[in-house]
Specification:
InterPro entries: SAM-dependent_MTases_sf, TPMT. Keywords: Methyltransferase, Phosphoprotein, S-adenosyl-L-methionine, Transferase. One of its GO terms (molecular function) is S-adenosylmethionine-dependent methyltransferase activity. This is S-adenosyl-L-methionine-dependent methyltransferase. There is one protein chain. The protein is built from seven helices and nine strands; from the N terminus they run H-H-H-E-H-E-H-E-E-H-E-H-E-E-E-E. The protein is an alpha/beta fold. It has one domain (about 25-270): Rossmann fold (3-Layer(aba) Sandwich). It has a seven-stranded mixed beta sheet with strand order 3-2-1-4-5-9-8, sandwiched between helices. It has a two-stranded antiparallel sheet with strand order 6-7. Strand 2 (about 90-95), helix 5 and strand 3 form a beta-alpha-beta unit. The longest helix is centred in the middle third of the chain and has 13 residues, at about 100-110.
Length: about 280
């Protein structure tokens, strides 16, 4: 949903999700069934392409004897999952909506065409597995190889789809699922929206990621109009993550640009405090 886009899609989403958060899963599936997908861009985010290509210094190091394992929660049609495969990852696309994964499998079938250069193998062919399940519950891990930890977790529009009341659970969960030497990559969006405008997508300025990922599982103070109350935060948790990189990408999806053409998205990369 671009800053220049008419507000009808935003208004429809706001109305659609004006129910308790524990009922949201079915609501997302309903949108996929109705083919109402204003967030779907049809290709991987250019910021992720550039990160994987140019910033290996902030990505997880290779693990001897196996491929690096990546997770994309709320993967939609799986464009970013297929990109991670091209970079050699054992990539898992997780969705609560089976209809979304039907779309992902259709996209996967089309990989290899002349207009699919972005998905060409770059340094070792990886693999893809589509998994239907709830990110906040362990059931989906039965379909994951190994010990159920991920070397890379990518979050772009997943956190922004969750109401602020679920951010404590999100931060706790990503920390639980991150391998000891792993990295969480967050494409921070939308950074420009006032908190009071609601969502999805919910406003996500960089300070929200810092507050929650350094205090995983903690309920943090929010004001209905002003958003996160930084002055009321306690000390970071000893189990919190450290931010190892934070920068604005050279390019991103069109929704991440201001009206004057400036990038408003940020990329942050996170690791366990004792990670190398």
């Amino acid at each position: 949903m671009s800053q220049d886009q008419p507000t009808d899609a935003r208004a429809a989403l706001l109305s659609h999700f004006s129910i308790p958060s524990d009922e949201h899963a079915k609501k997302w599936d309903d949108l996929w069934g109705a083919n109402f997908l204003p967030w779907d861009k049809g290709f991987p985010n250019p910021a992720l392409v550039d990160l994987l290509s140019e910033r290996k210094d902030v990505l997880p190091a290779a693990v001897e004897g196996r491929k690096l394992r990546a997770l994309v929660p709320g993967c939609g049609k799986g464009y970013d999952v297929l990109l991670l495969k091209a970079f050699g990852y054992e990539a898992y696309g997780l969705e609560v909506s089976g209809r979304a994964l039907e779309g992902a499998r259709e996209v996967e079938k089309g990989v290899g065409g002349e207009d699919q250069e972005v998905y060409r193998s770059r340094g070792g062919e990886g693999s893809v597995k589509w998994v239907e399940g709830n990110f906040f519950r362990d059931g989906f891990l039965e379909q994951v190889e190994g010990e159920g930890k991920f070397d890379l977790i990518y979050d772009h529009t997943f956190l922004s789809a969750l109401p602020p009341s679920m951010r404590a659970a999100w931060s706790k969960r990503v920390v639980e699922l991150l391998a000891p030497q792993g990295r969480i990559v967050c494409l921070e969006f939308p950074t420009y929206k006032p908190h009071s405008t609601g969502g999805p997508p919910w406003a996500l300025p960089p300070k929200v990621y810092v507050a929650h990922l350094s205090r995983p599982g903690e309920d943090l103070p929010y004001h209905e109009e002003e958003g996160l109350q930084e002055s009321k935060l306690g000390e970071p948790s000893k189990t919190g993550l450290k931010r190892v990189a934070h920068f604005q990408p050279k390019r991103t999806h069109n929704v991440g640009y201001s009206k004057d053409g400036k990038v408003t998205d940020w990329v942050s990369v996170w690791a366990h405090p004792d990670a190398q």
